[in-house]
Amino acid sequence: MLVDKSHSKKDILLLFRKHGVVIDEDLTKTKIVDKINKYMKNFNYFGRIQNKTELKEYLRNPSPKQRPTTAQKTELMFKAKKIIKWAKNDYIFDGATYMDSDEPYNDIMSIYMWGDSPSIRRACKLYNQSRYCINNVNPIISPEVQDELNNDKFIRRQVLCSLKIKRGTDENPIIVRFD
Fold it and tell me: pLDDT digit string (tens) for 28-42?
C-alpha cells in the first residue's frame, strides 16, 4: 500500500498505537509501510477513522500536521513575537514594532495558518483583543493538536473541591477580620 511521504514514522506509530496496534519502534519507516496491511487487520476503528477505506485514504493523503521548514519557522516566530510585543506595549504604533494598523494585520494574515504553534495562537488571540483588529483571525489548528488542546482544557476543568475546617480552642481562637 502507498503511504504519503509527509507522514513521519512517529505519526504512523502514534496513529496505530491510539487504535490498539503496537508497532515495534526499532523498525524503519520503510519496513513499517511494507507491513502496513498486516497491522491494519488488528486496527480498532473509532473516532475520525471509522473503517479500512478511511484509514487507507488518510494514509494516502498528505499528513494534516503542519510542518514549516526551518526558514519558515524562523520567520513565523519573528512575526508572532513582534505581534506579542506590540500587544504587551498596549498596541502603540511607535515605529519600534509597527507604524500603522495595516502592518499587524498583514503579519497576522501571513502566520495564522500555522496555528499548531502556541506562539501563533497567542499572537492571534492578542491581535483579536486589540482595538485595531480589522477582522477576527482564528488560527488554523490540525485535528490532532485540537484534540490535545481539548484534553488539556478538560483536565484543567476537573477541580477537586475540598473544605478544611479548623476549630479554634479557647487558648488559641481563630479570628477573622474584615477591614
Answer: 999 999 998 898 888
